[in-house]
User: Fold Sec translocon accessory complex subunit YajC from Morganella morganii.
Amino acid sequence: MSFFISDAVASTGAAASQGSPMSLIVMLVVFVLIFYFMILRPQQKRAKSHKQLMDSITKGDEVLTTGGLIGRVAKVSDTGYIVLELNETTEVTIKRDFVAAVLPKGTLKAL
Assistant:
């Protein structure tokens, strides 16, 4: 067996495979920091900007929903629902969270 493994390497055995516990802690801290800056922080920023968008919706705004509907806000309730006016005769009640974007004024006329 000495053809493949030198005697010096074979004699160290399992003792050489263990590293210091400090290097393990440093590696875990680095992984946690990468996870925070790559995943958690951007998600928190998106959630914060979406909440600001939801709070800024007022009557008369033209909005786009996540379902693809475009309409003008006819009524905003305190319970978290808004009434969208799709055209002069059609109104739809949706949850405020499903608004994807507030469109510039005049978008409905341009379509």
About this structure: The longest helix spans residues 21-55.
